[in-house]
Amino acid sequence: MIEILRMRRSSRVFLNKPISSMHFDIIKESLLRAPTSKNNRPCEFIFVDSKNLLKKLSEAKSHGASFLKDSPLGVVIIADSNKSDVWVEDASIAAITMQYVCESLGMGSCWIQIRERFFSDEINSSKYVKELLDIPDNFEVLAIVAAGYPVKSKEPVLYETLLQDKIKTNSYK
User: Residue 138: inside a domain, yes or no?
Assistant: First the structure.
């Protein structure tokens, strides 16, 4: 696992290559196995591989999502906010679990924040995505994770550059 953590970097440029059915199945399984508070399982996942829908989803916010239109896959991470008061945490765990599994499969991924972002001055990104994908009102949209086979691998962050001062022992001092 530590090797996956060391190697994972955000990928925003993907090969024009479909994701294998085996990798699709593994990604789906990883999302369904992601832990949730009290095992409430409030999260659901919408797999989008339609180029038309990916283009529309890439417009969900003013910046930081345009690369989605050229991705082979976008997974919309949603959660039923009536099922859990910690749906944000549960959905975040699912998203990062998927990203680590993608890395283990030789794939790249990148998180696209939707919650608390805006499509326009009048419409937030979550509402835009919900209307586009017919998501019921009781669900909230956390993020979209773009995934595919990366055009190039990025170098891992060197251990020496990690911010060691962020780690404290027994107190803040």
Answer: yes
